[in-house]
Every structure is written in structure tokens, then in C-alpha cells.
Design brief:
Length: 286
């Protein structure tokens, strides 16, 4: 039996009947002789910064240093130096992804609510107060400050994330722009504060998330707006159906009147022809 992942452990073989275990050992094809080779598993022994020795049943250690995973590759007679550096690349990638998602959403709103006077075209949601209110809420959330943070980095613009081109007045545009140099500097100066800004209760992203959860809920703004639009469409369909019925009735009425008029005119024409014939006969007889 071999075990490479759990270190030192005890394996007990028992047939549970209190009798000799020879039958079970034989059935498992185990060697019970004194010459059988037995290799004992061992736990990994390590210490950090000269501290007390610790043991682990695995060569992968996740609870020694907060946020770090250490893999023991072998034994050493000397100490090994571990350098732990901040993973700013992943943080930057995630922030860029957020900026892209936010800008895509805001661009969609802008495109679908604008009115183009030159081409005399209107977006699908032009004049829709619910959509414009959502746009304002998103902007307000992004530009809000984290009141629970006591450091310099209390707003997204303070770490290089602003609504507008770099150097422009905050709030002058609807999309976000990331100043990567400023973000990297803030991360290097106080990564905990930057992390808190993104994850703290009452912070910009928490405010944004809270609003979006409410807006997309069953009773939220989007559902209510959709329900209202559906109601209006049904009402329009009903009005169209009613108007169509009125038009159909009017058409039938007019067709009947013109049909009656045509019949009357035909009758009048027949009577006129008959009268003309009779008058012609009288003239001949006279």
C-alpha cells in the first residue's frame, strides 16, 4: 500500500470477528511475514522565520502565511528564502475588466436614449425617465466616497479611476478612464486601502452593487419598467383591435349604403328606360 499525499498515517486491517486476521490478509494478498517491506509515511516538517517546527500531512501548505500557498519541493540542510510580492498584474486586469463592463453599459444607455436632430432619429429609450435615472444612479455610485475608510484613497478617482479623460474634471463624461500609473502607485503605497475601497461596505462598488441588485430584482426598476411597457403594448393592441373593428364596421356600413345606392340607381335607370319606351310608343300612336 502506498500513500503520497497524507504523510504519516495509521492503517488498521481487521476482519471484525475477533479471529485470526490471516484469512483477510491472504484475501487482500498482503505479506504478513516479518521480512515484508514496510515504508512508513512521513509528515513534512518546516518552520518559518526561525519559529517553532510545524508539521503538515501535505507538501502544499496553505495556512502558514495569510494569502500565500507554499509548496515544499524537497528537503534542505539550509534555510530557503521565500519572496512574496504583490500581484499587481491580476489587480490591474480585474480593474480593466470592470472599466470595460461599466463603459459598455453606459455606452448602450447613451446610444439608446439619444436624440439626433440632424438625422431626426430617436433612440429606443429616448425620453424614458427610468433609464436616464439609472444612468444617473450609476454615475453617482462610481463618484461616491467610501465614508468608512480613513486613508487618502477614499474615492475611485484617488486611485486613478475617473469618469472622463485623464486630467479632466470628474463627472464630465459618462464613461470611466483608468490611469494605470496612478493606480499602480496607489497599489504600491497602500494596497490594503485600495482593496478596502473596492470591497468596503458603503464604498463605490458596494453602492453600485447594491443599486444593481435592487434594480434587477423582481420588484426593481428594470422589471417595473418592462411590466409597464408590456401593459402599454397590450393597451395599444386593444385600442388597435377596437379601432380596426370600428373601421371594419364602417366599411361594411358604407359598402351596404353604396350597394343600396347602386341598386336604387339601377332601378331608377330601368324605370327611366321603361318610361322612355312608353313615351316613344305614345308618340308613334299619336
Amino acid at each position: 500500500m502506498q500513500n503520497k499525499s497524507t504523510g504519516a498515517s495509521v492503517v488498521t486491517v481487521d476482519d471484525n470477528n475477533g479471529n485470526d486476521n490471516a484469512g483477510l490478509i491472504s484475501a487482500l494478498k498482503l505479506d504478513s511475514s516479518s521480512s515484508a517491506v514496510t515504508t512508513l509515511g512521513q509528515n513534512a516538517i518546516y518552520s518559518i522565520n526561525g519559529g517553532a517546527s510545524k508539521s503538515s500531512t501535505s507538501n502544499t501548505i496553505t495556512n502558514a502565511i495569510s494569502g500565500a500557498t507554499i509548496t515544499l519541493a524537497g528537503t534542505l540542510d539550509t534555510t530557503a528564502t521565500i519572496t512574496i510580492a504583490q500581484d499587481s498584474t491580476t489587480a490591474l486586469t480585474n480593474v480593466k475588466a470592470f472599466v470595460t463592463a461599466y463603459n459598455d453599459a453606459m455606452t448602450w444607455v447613451i446610444e439608446n436614449t439619444k436624440v439626433d436632430a440632424a438625422t431626426k432619429t430617436r433612440g429606443v429609450f429616448a425620453g424614458d425617465s427610468a433609464i436616464t435615472a439609472m444612468q444617473s444612479k450609476l454615475r453617482a455610485a462610481i463618484n461616491s466616497a467610501a465614508s468608512s475608510i480613513s486613508t487618502t484613497y477614499k474615492t475611485l478617482p484617488s486611485i486613478g479611476l475617473s469618469s472622463g479623460a485623464v486630467g479632466s474634471t470628474v463627472g464630465t463624461t459618462n464613461t470611466l478612464v483608468l490611469d494605470e500609473s496612478k493606480f499602480a502607485a496607489a497599489l504600491a503605497a497602500d494596497s490594503s486601502a485600495v482593496s478596502s475601497l473596492f470591497g468596503s461596505s458603503g464604498g463605490p462598488l458596494d453602492t453600485l452593487k447594491t443599486y444593481l441588485v435592487a434594480a434587477t430584482s423582481f420588484s426593481g426598476l428594470i422589471y417595473s419598467s418592462q411590466t409597464s411597457a408590456d401593459t402599454q403594448l397590450r393597451d395599444l393592441d386593444k385600442r388597435i383591435s377596437t379601432m380596426q373593428q370600428r373601421l371594419d364596421d364602417k366599411q361594411a356600413s358604407l359598402q351596404k349604403k353604396y350597394s343600396d345606392l347602386e341598386a336604387a340607381m339601377s332601378k331608377l335607370q330601368a324605370q327611366s328606360s321603361s318610361l322612355s319606351s312608353q313615351l316613344a310608343g305614345l308618340n308613334k300612336s299619336g
